[in-house]
Amino acid sequence: MDSLLKLLHENASLKPSQLAAMLNRTEPEVCDLIKKCEADGTILGYHAILNEEKLGVDLVRAAIEVKITPEREGGFNRLAERIAKYGEVRSCYLMSGGYDLLVIVEGANLREVATFVSEKLATLQGVLSTATHFILKPYKEQGVLITKESADERLSVAP
Predict the structure, then answer these.
(1) What is the DSSP letter of 154?
(2) Domains and CATH numbers, the chain
(3) Sign (positive/negative) of CA torsion 130, 122, 100, 93?
(4) Angstrom distance (rounded) from CA 38 to CA 61
(5) Which H/E stretch holds residue 145?
(6) Dihedral through CA 35, CA 11, CA 108, CA 90, nearest 10?
(7) What's the Cα-to-Cα distance from 8 to each of 28, 30, 72, rounded to whole Å?
(8) Does the pLDDT of residue 112 top 90, yes or no?
(9) Structural contact between residues 71 and 104, judged by C-beta atoms closer than 8 angstroms
(10) Residue 107 and residue 135: Cα distance in Å, rounded?
(11) Is residue 144 over pLDDT 70?
């Protein structure tokens, strides 16, 4: 990965002036490189990682294992792309192992997620089975620890 992209991947909030100083380039050069990467699809977007507990956000998330039948000529791609287009889907990955796709979904409540699985996902032609695992608490998101380490308040045990 190129050094500019590596820096942006680690911290997308860095300003072009900061990036230029870190890369020994001019600010206009950095801006041009970023624009080219955005135009050619290398950079797809920028995201802030939020501590939803502090914000009072109460979404229900689930990781769904999906087994599908590959299509002639299209393999897994057509169905995976169709699933990925649903608004409830946050991420969709082709996997190796016991299932074909890992689909991360979110909804306002348990019923919304369950309805998505039972009425939209499981009913798609080519979907053989699903297994839903609800995400109870995040500890790390995209390389960022969600909770700060707490000081160990236990007393040390001496023999």
Answers:
(1) S
(2) 3-39 (1.10.10), 52-137 (3.30.70.920)
(3) negative
(4) 29
(5) strand 144-145
(6) 60
(7) 16, 11, 39
(8) yes
(9) no
(10) 12
(11) yes
What pLDDT does residue 1 have? 62
Structure tokens at 30: 């950095």
Question: Would you state the structure tokens that stand for residue 142, as one six-digit string?
Answer: 């995209």
Provide the whole-model pTM.
0.81
- In contact, 62 and 135? CB cutoff 8 Å: yes
CA 84 → CA 90, 104, 118, 120, 152, distances in Å? Answer: 8, 10, 16, 12, 42
Residue 83 near residue 89, CB atoms below 8 Å: yes
One-letter amino acid for residue 46 of the chain: Y
The 10s digit of each residue's pLDDT in 64-98 is 999 999 988 878 999 999 999 999 999 999 999 99
Each residue's pLDDT tens digit, 32-67: 999 999 999 999 999 888 888 888 888 999 999 999
